[in-house]
Amino acid sequence: MQNLPLHKKIILFDGICNLCDSSVQFVIKKDKKDIFRFVALQSDLGKEICQYIGVDSDKMDSIILYNPGVAYYYKSSAIIGIANALGGIYSLFSIAKIIPEKIRNILYDYIAKNRYKWYGKKESCMIPTPELKSKFL
């Protein structure tokens, strides 16, 4: 896939989900090493990346962590990967790897299924402020 920053990890997220938006804002605030870039799953680029890595974007209710040219992770594995990349105290979250992925994803899927009911959703994807625009692809 061309035109993606090769030295950045890309987080694909549900752009209309309030929980996802809050999570993105949290990662941006904690991303002191400027590791991440963000793409809404609903955007043309989000759909293009999903197609490229073989994930059906219409059926995707998950966060995806994509490391261009290396690998991608989704659901609980993406969250663990993001926490590890943030480092510091967040890397302790990797202890969750002792729980089998299938079991971790049952919890993830439960939250994903109820995220709109619990946290609400927006009518459209957020528009980043000028200061944050460089973080979004």
TrEMBL record:
InterPro entries the UniProt entry points to: DCC1-like (IPR007263), DCC_oxidoreductase (IPR052927)
A Gene Ontology molecular function term of the record: protein-disulfide reductase activity
Top-level taxon of origin: Bacteria
TM region positions: none
Protein name as it appears in the record: Putative DCC family thiol-disulfide oxidoreductase YuxK
Species name: Flavobacterium cutihirudinis
